[in-house]
Amino acid sequence: MRGKGRATIQFGCCYNYAADRDGNPPGIVRDESVDPLPPLLAAMARRLVLWRVLPPSCVPDSCIVNVYDVDDCIPPHVDHHDFLRPFCTASFLAEAPILFGRDMRVVAPGEFSAAASIPLPVGSVLVLAGNGADVAKHCVPAVPAKRISITFRKMDASKVPFGFRPDPLLQSLAAAVVRPAMTAASAPPNRAAWEQGQGEPAKHATPQQQQQQPAAPLYQAAAAVRAGQTQSQSPGGGVPFSLSTDEFPALGASPASGRRPGRR
User: What PROSITE patterns would the database entry show (predicted)?
Assistant: First the structure.
């Protein structure tokens, strides 16, 4: 039926869009036990922070996977303030628009009238913050094809479920040292000098100069990483943080080899 909802999978916490039959108000249900972020989604959350899509103050510890069939939609709403701002949503399988507006109305099943529309291409990530997250409502009208969206959010510390255990590796990102991006205003005339000033060997330096000045890790985490992983201490005393090239293997490939079955 056109305009019906979509299937959802929640990780990190369970939350209600409206009061449920047990009388729980909208928001995070603190006495509900939910699986944590699986490794693949946790790896995505880490990259969102390391790539500066989300700030270290909003390292995701929960997410919701929305699975749309043809004609499924999300009605106008503002995300609950049990979750911090900013948060973001990633889109897969098919493009769809997202609508924004302070006052929105239903035109027909799965169709809404709004002030603005933004396309969500496959593989895109949309960050919601400020008025776009707190004042304007947003919705996804009936989609023309099957699609999946994954929304990553950080829970308010006072609203986390009872017994919630944060992922150590994600938790460490809150204290990670992320090198600021170089801008045209801050970049010196000599890029090699700038790279050396950042603690990295200049790309234009000789091999002998590079050996004399080893590269410092780009990201350093202040907390211990997940048990079972060993990493050497960095010169600054932090724990280097790195991403494995096998975290996102090709479809059908084994994480260990990164190759597709039946191929060498």
Answer: FE2OG_OXY (PS51471)
Distance CA 166, CA 143 (A): 34
The pLDDT of residue 239: 37
Q: What share of the chain is helix, strand, coil (3-state, %, to 5)?
A: 15, 25, 60
DSSP secondary-structure letter at 197? Answer: H
pLDDT at 223: 30
Domain boundaries, the chain: 7-168
Instruction: Give the count of beta carbons closer than 10 Å to the beta carbon of residue 123.
Output: 10
Question: What is d(CA 180, CA 79) in angstroms, rounded to the nearest whole number?
Answer: 30
Radius of gyration for the chain, computed over Cα atoms and rounded to the nearest angstrom: 22
- Helix (H) or strand (E) run with residue 168 in it: helix 168-172
* Cα angle for residues 205, 210, 211 (degrees, 5° grid): 150
Kindly report the length of the chain: 264
Burial of 253 (0-12, 13-18, 19+ CB in 10 A): middle
From residue 257, alpha-carbon distances to 60, 83, 247, 249, 254 in Å are 29, 38, 11, 9, 6
Q: Does domain 7-168 have CATH number 2.60.120.590?
A: yes
The CA–CA distances, whole Å, from 57 to 53, 212, 247 equal: 12, 36, 24
**239: region left, alpha or beta (phi > 0 left; psi from -120 to 50 alpha):** beta
Contact assessment for residue 63 and residue 167, using Cβ atoms and an 8 Å cutoff: no
Q: What is the pLDDT of residue 190?
A: 57
